[in-house]
Design brief:
Layout: H1 2-8, H2 65-79, E1 81-82, H3 84-87, H4 95-106, H5 113-129, E2 146-147, H6 149-157, E3 163-167, H7 179-185, E4 190-193, H8 196-202, E5 210-213, H9 221-236, H10 239-243, E6 246-247, H11 252-276
Parallel strand pairs: 3-4
Antiparallel strand pairs: 1-6, 2-5, 3-5
């Protein structure tokens, strides 16, 4: 009897299972009733199903050849080492300096064809009346910007230009690549601004490679001197502009490989120093 009683008991360390409650008991969970008006309809993105979600398909687009060439050229310019004479055109003035400069230059926009025609007619009329061409009201030639590569070059060589503004995206760059060196030699302040179209708007043209300021009114002389001094320190007297090479920026994978190699060399060098000591 003792043996049966021992075998009939559950083994130690286990809990006795309770019998399940009968169906319909108060303690059992009731089945959730769904409203038939609001049925759950999961989306199906197979063929003929729901509309596909919006995705960025830029990687899968077959771009036109000219866009591919633009992007490859941009990457090549980042990878290859660029000489200082060409790399200097990437160091343009910042947004605040550009806004101050353009605000000043806008006051001295060249005449339009119609305005010039009217001024010459008034000058001819004043001469005819015997009043003198230069002294007639509204007939004196206004103070304006000078544009055109050959014209600006002549003004710089004769040291008549007070400030030269060069666009950074002239194509081909060989048109203006020598102009900063000429300005430094003739001690004429110059600066590089982003956008040849911005200079073109000042001259009533589509684009302009460079413009020059020869003279301004008395009230704007202080602003011109301040800008000229800043640009002279930033570009003319800055030795790093003539020495600093551009480009040489590798891709993310190449950068990681280079960093890993440098780290290994540093560890090896540290071990050698420890052995020497």
């Amino acid at each position: 009897m003792a043996k049966l009683s021992v075998e009939g008991m559950p083994p130690k360390g286990t809990k006795k299972k309770l019998p399940q409650a009968p169906l319909g008991a108060a303690g059992s969970k009731a089945k959730k009733v769904r409203n038939p008006l609001f049925e759950k309809t999961p989306r199906n993105f197979r063929v003929g199903g729901d509309i596909q979600p919006k995705r960025d398909l830029a990687r899968f687009v077959r771009w036109p050849k000219y866009i591919q060439l633009q992007r490859k050229k941009r990457i090549l310019l980042q990878r290859l080492k660029v000489p200082p004479q060409i790399a200097q055109f990437q160091n343009a003035i910042d947004k605040n300096q550009a806004s101050q400069l353009l605000r000043l230059l806008k006051k001295y926009q060249p005449e339009t064809k119609m305005a010039k025609k009217n001024r010459l007619l008034e000058m001819a009329q004043s001469k005819k009346d015997g009043k003198g061409g230069a002294d007639g009201s509204g007939t004196k030639k206004p103070t304006v910007l000078k544009y055109g590569l050959n014209h600006v070059t002549t003004l710089v060589e004769n040291k008549m230009a007070k400030l030269v503004v060069i666009a950074h995206d002239v194509d081909p760059i060989e048109l203006v690549v020598w102009l900063p060196a000429l300005c430094r030699k003739k001690d004429v302040p110059y600066c590089i601004i982003k956008g040849k179209s911005r200079l073109g708007q000042l001259c009533h043209k589509k684009t302009a490679s460079c413009i020059a300021v020869t003279s301004v009114k008395k009230e704007d002389q202080g602003d011109l001197d301040k800008l000229a001094n800043n640009f002279k320190a930033q570009f003319n007297d800055n030795i790093e502009v003539k020495r600093k090479w551009g480009g040489g920026i590798m891709g993310v994978k190449s950068q990681h490989v280079t960093q890993k190699r440098e780290k290994a060399l540093a560890i090896e060098q540290a071990k050698k120093m420890g052995l020497n000591v």
